């Protein structure tokens, strides 16, 4: 960029305040990289796709900039955090690569060995070698012996069952090279490595090694080998049989002899050879043997002297098969072991993994020095065993009593209604069991830990229920009759969950702390309680109880309150206890209990406390945006969820639609992330069209979101995805890619034109980057300094990073960090894109005046004529703009195209009457009135707006005039708010 952009003074400050006050935005963390999102305002979201520009912003939703609290501290800048994560990620990736490399090498070695063995076998099997052996007659007894032994290996039933060997592993055949010393009728002691290689299988060790290559599972067991000669059928074929667990004596009776020493092994092969030669003789005699080579049967049986495996711990006795469970049970628990806590969290995590493996449980478990925090799904048929495993004391075989056991406050919170397996598979709360070691099980932000053992009274759910009911009745009495007779003050009830959790459900009388993160609670509590007497009863609750341990420790130890209690087992415990012990009682908790697993929430009562993020109606549903790049958590009603395909905005919806419609274009750098899920059922043609158009580059979505954040009242003015793609297509079809834009705003259409101009330049074979005088070049005129500042930042990102996901990330950072965007205080700025096209943003006081100057050739701004002029500003003077563009050839080439936006003027051109009041000529879409009028969602309301009617009349007059102008040819297209293509003849 060839300009210095001024720091935004007024602008930055204004948004900084918005950040601090923001209640409706949220920064969030996904995986290990921080992602920044802003909640766009409803109206801009509705306008983002460009499908519907008529819908106004929803009054319930305010746009805001969002700042992640992590970055709020002075020393944690986004870049330092990002670099920290980058380093951590690099280490993980390097380690993974190293492991993969080693695996590859080992595999390569094994393949190489296999190949060598196969080659050798093939050679030995070759007719030539067989023939040579036959001719050599090297057995010393004048008969020919093939160079290979066939060895049939049979494993016993006990081993098969114990090692869960499949059919193919039960038995098999391998070929062994006949050792040369066999011809000399001698034994060989095989002790060095070379010998072992040359005489594979001629020692116990070598034989076992070869067997392991075919029967890999045997490695895990202790077994003994014995051998027998083959049994032949009447035609001389070797019979295979299933082995059983014969005792020693039986084995001898069956003609099996043990292979305990190397000598035994060699003798066995020797016997096999003799047996074969004997049969060969017989074959010559009666021509019946089908045995082609010496054959030995090797029996693999469990070693009777192997030590017995230790008995299973009591909790694994009679363990049913967890895979056969028809349901899953959701549960949660936490423990703060006293004294030194968990001394070695890593080994505890390993221990938990090992002990819980047989249960096939899923979930998310955190282990830290301070304790364990678990949310899990356990197959219901093994639940009793699992509970035993976690709770049995050490003297009864329990291995977890030092971390869980009696330290699990309120035991294990078990959801009373198990989830059927089908349902669980469709919408899994967890997919794996993740046991992670963390510095804390609940991040609190304290410099040093408090005493978690001393955290107020742990109030049983029914007592809590009664207390709350009593307080509610008292509060009602005070309200209705002004009865203040009671001496006891009402308790303060704190909902200690984060703001988003309380949106869909809470206890009556509760005051939500409204934090974005748990660690923000301390300031909120200190401020709220600063004038409260220390003996005021304070009751706290959260989802499962763990957060209240910390809150109450803070209230008692730091703020010195004396009458503090917390709901034992949290809302989950309350729900279960009430269901089990007082099912007829009306629950004091209303709505949905938000939970941190795939279910998102458990409905406790039918009350709908939430407000739909999209339409503002009441709902109890909470969800995450289905656009995986966004994933914003939001309250959204069923209707909006269906019409937005589970996404939060038109922008995200289009991304999801595009990504599902383009399953094969993954290699495209601009490809948006592919979403999983069922195929989309399109409900309107706009969605269908988006779904069947090439994906919009990710950068453009971020430009829309930035516009909503930086220029909320004008966010509806951006061209949007559908129109933007159309403009790119038009620009790419020109010969030179020379585009003039009137009305840059935040640079959405400018970016589309620049993209198209670069394509045009490439297709036409331009060798140099375009300039004012020739080649692919976009000139965009704008008078608003703030809009230009935002546009300049966007085009800089595009110039440096392109339009892909990475570029989108940089653009998203602009609104997240509020940096790099300021009022434009230069005259112009030029950026280059793709080594092909350049783009100049020019600040003007009036675009029409600048155009007229350029047309006359007198201006310093003059440029070679353009292929396309996009008129997207100053809608009351369209006739003058078209005039300036078509008279003379300085501005627009002969045959060039003028594109005029908004020619249908929100549909009101239909109503346009013959009475046109010209008195108001100060049109500007980006005016306060325009912002206000677009707040309203219905055309009828617009009809009542005098100014809107006047503008519609003007537009109608322009449309009627231009179609009669014989210097041009017009095609009006009902895309979005109407686009007229006006070709200069
Ligand atoms: C509809 S917006 C442009 C939107 C943009 N082309 C896009 O697609 O994202 C109109 C812009 O024109 C600018 N504008 C209006 N009148 C103007 C004038 N006389 N001279 C220069 N700019 C003007 C406004 O400040 C506003 O930013």
TrEMBL record:
Keywords: Coiled coil, Methyltransferase, S-adenosyl-L-methionine, Transferase
Region span, Disordered: 916-939
Domain Rhodanese residues, every copy: 487-580
Biased composition regions of type Acidic residues, renumbered to the chain: 917-927
Matches recorded under PROSITE patterns: RHODANESE_3 (PS50206), SAM_OMT_I (PS51682)
Statement: the UniProt record of this protein carries the keyword Metal-binding: no
Gene3D superfamilies: 3.30.70.100, Rhodanese-like domain (3.40.250.10), Vaccinia Virus protein VP39 (3.40.50.150)
One of the GO BP terms on file: methylation
SUPFAM superfamilies named among the record's database cross-references: Rhodanese/Cell cycle control phosphatase, S-adenosyl-L-methionine-dependent methyltransferases
Coiled-coil residue spans: 89-116
Annotated Pfam families: Methyltransf_3, Rhodanese_C, UPF0176_N
Molecular-function GO terms, alphabetical: methyltransferase activity
Keyword Methyltransferase: yes
Domain of life of the organism encoding this protein: Eukaryota
Similarity remark: Belongs to the class I-like SAM-binding methyltransferase superfamily. Cation-dependent O-methyltransferase family.
Stated name of the protein: Rhodanese domain-containing protein
């Amino acid at each position: 960029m060839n300009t210095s952009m001024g720091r935004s003074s007024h602008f930055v400050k204004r948004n900084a305040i918005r950040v601090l006050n923001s209640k409706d935005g949220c920064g969030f963390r996904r995986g290990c990289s921080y992602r920044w999102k802003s909640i766009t305002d409803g109206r801009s979201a509705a306008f983002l796709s460009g499908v519907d520009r008529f819908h106004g912003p929803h009054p319930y939703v305010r746009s805001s900039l969002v700042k992640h609290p992590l970055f709020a501290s002075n020393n944690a800048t986004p870049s330092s955090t990002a670099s920290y994560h980058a380093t951590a990620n690099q280490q993980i990736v390097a380690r993974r690569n190293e492991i993969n490399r080693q695996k590859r090498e080992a595999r390569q070695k094994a393949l190489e060995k296999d190949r060598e063995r196969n080659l050798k076998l093939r050679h030995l099997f070759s007719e030539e070698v067989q023939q040579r052996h036959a001719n050599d007659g090297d057995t010393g007894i004048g008969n020919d012996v093939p160079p290979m032994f066939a060895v049939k290996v049979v494993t016993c039933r006990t081993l098969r069952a114990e090692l869960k060997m499949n059919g193919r592993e039960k038995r098999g055949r391998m070929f062994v090279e006949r050792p040369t010393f066999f011809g000399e009728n001698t034994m060989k002691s095989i002790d060095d490595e070379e010998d072992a290689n040359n005489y594979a299988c001629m020692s116990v060790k070598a034989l076992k090694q070869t067997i392991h290559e075919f029967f890999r599972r045997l490695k895990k067991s202790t077994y003994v080998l014995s051998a027998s000669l083959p049994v032949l059928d009447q035609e001389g074929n070797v019979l295979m049989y299933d082995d059983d667990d014969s005792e020693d004596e039986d084995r001898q009776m069956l003609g099996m002899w043990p292979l305990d020493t190397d000598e035994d092994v060699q003798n066995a092969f020797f016997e096999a050879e003799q047996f074969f030669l004997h049969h060969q003789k017989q074959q010559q005699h009666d021509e019946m043997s089908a045995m082609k080579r010496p054959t030995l049967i090797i029996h693999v049986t469990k070693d009777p002297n192997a030590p017995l495996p230790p008995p299973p711990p009591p909790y694994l006795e009679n363990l049913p098969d967890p895979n056969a469970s028809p349901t899953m049970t959701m549960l949660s628990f936490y423990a703060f072991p006293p004294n030194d806590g968990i001394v070695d969290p890593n080994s505890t995590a390993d221990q938990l993994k090992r002990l819980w493996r047989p249960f096939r449980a899923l979930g998310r478990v955190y282990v830290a020095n301070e304790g364990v925090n678990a949310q899990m799904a356990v197959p219901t048929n093994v639940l009793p065993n699992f509970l035993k495993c976690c709770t049995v004391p050490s003297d009864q075989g329990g291995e977890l009593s030092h971390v869980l056991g009696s330290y699990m406050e309120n035991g294990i919170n078990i959801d009373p209604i198990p989830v059927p397996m089908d349902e669980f598979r469709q919408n899994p709360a967890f997919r794996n069991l993740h046991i992670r070691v963390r510095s804390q099980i609940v991040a609190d932000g304290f410099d040093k830990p408090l005493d978690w053992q001393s955290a107020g009274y742990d109030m049983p759910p029914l007592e809590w229920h009664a207390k709350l009911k009593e307080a509610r009745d008292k509060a009602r009495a005070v309200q209705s009759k002004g009865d203040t007779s009671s001496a006891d003050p009402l308790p303060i009830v704190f909902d200690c969950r984060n703001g988003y959790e309380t949106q869909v459900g809470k206890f009556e009388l509760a005051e939500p702390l409204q934090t974005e993160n748990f660690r923000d609670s301390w300031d909120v509590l200190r401020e709220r309680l600063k004038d409260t007497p220390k003996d005021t009863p304070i009751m706290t609750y959260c989802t499962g109880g763990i957060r209240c341990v910390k809150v109450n420790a803070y209230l008692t130890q730091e703020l010195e309150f004396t009458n503090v209690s917390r709901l034992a087992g949290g809302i989950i415990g309350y729900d279960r206890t009430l269901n089990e012990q007082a099912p007829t009682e009306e629950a004091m908790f209303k709505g949905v209990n938000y939970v941190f697993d795939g279910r998102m929430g458990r409905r406790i009562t039918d009350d709908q406390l939430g407000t739909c993020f999209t339409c503002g109606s009441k709902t109890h549903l909470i969800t995450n945006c289905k656009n995986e790049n966004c994933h914003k958590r939001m309250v959204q009603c069923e209707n909006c969820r269906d019409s937005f395909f589970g996404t939060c905005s038109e922008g995200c919806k289009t991304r999801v639609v595009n990504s599902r419609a383009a399953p094969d274009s993954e290699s495209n750098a601009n490809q948006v992330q592919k979403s999983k899920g069922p195929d989309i059922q399109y409900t309107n043609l706009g969605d269908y069209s988006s779904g069947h158009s090439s994906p919009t580059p990710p950068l453009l979505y971020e430009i829309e979101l930035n516009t909503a954040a930086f220029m909320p009242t004008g966010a509806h003015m951006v061209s949007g995805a559908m129109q933007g793609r159309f403009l790119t297509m038009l620009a790419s079809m020109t010969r030179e890619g020379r585009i003039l834009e009137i009305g840059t705003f935040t640079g959405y259409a400018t970016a589309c034109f620049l993209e198209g101009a670069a394509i045009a330049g490439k297709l036409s074979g331009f060798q140099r980057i375009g300039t004012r005088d020739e080649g692919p070049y976009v000139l965009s005129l704008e008078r608003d300094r703030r809009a230009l500042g935002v546009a300049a930042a966007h085009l800089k990102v595009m110039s440096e990073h392109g339009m892909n996901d990475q570029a989108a990330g940089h653009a998203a950072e602009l609104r997240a960090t509020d940096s790099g965007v300021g009022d434009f205080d230069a005259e112009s700025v030029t950026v280059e894109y793709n080594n092909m096209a350049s783009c100049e943003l020019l600040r003007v006081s009036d675009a029409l005046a600048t155009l007229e100057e350029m047309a006359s050739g007198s201006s310093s701004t003059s440029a070679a004529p353009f292929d396309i002029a996009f008129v997207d500003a100053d809608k009351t003077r369209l006739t003058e703009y078209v005039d300036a563009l078509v008279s003379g050839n300085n501005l627009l080439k002969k045959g060039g195209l003028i594109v005029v936006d908004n020619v249908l003027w929100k549909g009101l051109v239909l109503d346009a009457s013959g009475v046109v009041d010209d008195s108001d000529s100060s049109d500007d879409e980006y005016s306060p009135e325009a912002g206000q009028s677009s707040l309203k969602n219905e055309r009828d309301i617009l009809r009542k707006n005098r100014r809107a009617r006047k503008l519609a009349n003007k537009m109608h007059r322009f449309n009627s005039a231009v179609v009669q102008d014989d210097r041009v040819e017009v095609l009006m297209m009902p895309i979005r708010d109407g686009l007229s293509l006006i070709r200069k003849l």
